[in-house]
Design a protein that fits this description.
By secondary structure, the chain is of the alpha/beta class. The chain has one domain. The chain is 45% helix and 27% strand. It is built from 3 helices and 5 strands. Strand 1 and strand 2 form a beta hairpin. The protein is globular, with a radius of gyration of 14 Å. The two termini are 26 Å apart.
């Protein structure tokens, strides 16, 4: 069983990995990384036209909500970028995100992560 300390350690590790991925992907999407907004939230990638929330595939729903908020605050189009480790194991998350993003008119981006 996972202890609270192990869970916290894992969450910090995933957050650090996510930030590394944002830094790697920023140039690809011509976007600034970790931009702090007026309300102290931080959009992961902010381009001229999009507010992009980057998250692990299993956190697809959270990513959609955050992208929607960042779009409202910045006046840019919302986008969700899911970090995918194994497309077969994470297919259910990708499917769900695809359905919701299509319905809401959000762009969904996928990036493979080792």
């Amino acid at each position: 069983m996972n202890t609270a300390e192990e869970i916290i350690r894992r969450a910090r590790y995933l957050r650090a990995r996510e930030l590394d991925e944002c830094r790697r992907l920023g140039p690809k999407y011509a976007a600034a990384v970790e931009v702090t907004l007026w309300d102290r939230t931080r959009v992961d990638l902010l381009s001229e036209t999009q507010a992009i929330e980057v998250d692990w595939a299993s956190k697809w729903a959270e990513a959609i909500g955050q992208a929607a908020w960042y779009a409202i605050v910045t006046g840019r189009r919302p986008a969700v970028l899911l970090l995918v480790r194994d497309v077969h194991q994470e297919a259910r998350y990708i499917y769900r995100a695809t359905a919701v993003c299509q319905r809401l008119g959000m762009e969904l981006l996928l990036e493979d992560v080792d």
